[in-house]
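> agent: user asked for a holo structure of the chain below bound to calcium ion. Plan: (1) validate sequence alphabet, (2) canonicalize SMILES, (3) run complex prediction with ligand conditioning, (4) return tokens. Step 1... ok. Step 2... ok. Step 3 dispatched.
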Amino acid sequence: MYIDLGKISEDVIPNNRLDSEDKAPQNELIDEGEDTGLDGYFDPQEQTVFGSQKSDPSNDNFAYNNSPLFDLYNYFNINGTEGNAQLTDIGRVPDTEDLNRNGVLDQANSYFRYEIPIDTTAANNPYIHGG
Ligand SMILES: [Ca+2]
Ligand SMILES: [Ca+2]
Ligand SMILES: [Ca+2]
Ligand SMILES: [Ca+2]
């Protein structure tokens, strides 16, 4: 497990540009057709732009299943940014790379990384003491 403490670049789509779902007019609201994910494309456009036959070429679709029936819990795509506006309270504002909301793309990477082994075998993990 890695824990990074400090500043990390907001440029998730590494293009030196601030990518956001909020298109003109920018109003901090999810308007019709804006719930595209950070890439700005819905799946059919992703297939065209990236020349792919995959159902979700950008792998950015939101999905989850929290049904206790048959233990169908699945949160693998809970952080997807395409299609998250309709199903959750957290998705009602446009997704953006601008995490600190200062209006600019902060690209500084300046952080300390701590590596913590999660091996539970005491012989392999020097951080386990006392069993
Ligand atoms: Ca970007
Ligand atoms: Ca997308
Ligand atoms: Ca997609
Ligand atoms: Ca920023």
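> agent: step 4 complete. Summary for user: Helices lie at 43-50. Residues 11, 13, 15, 17, 19, 97 surround calcium ion (ligand 1) (CB under 6 Å).
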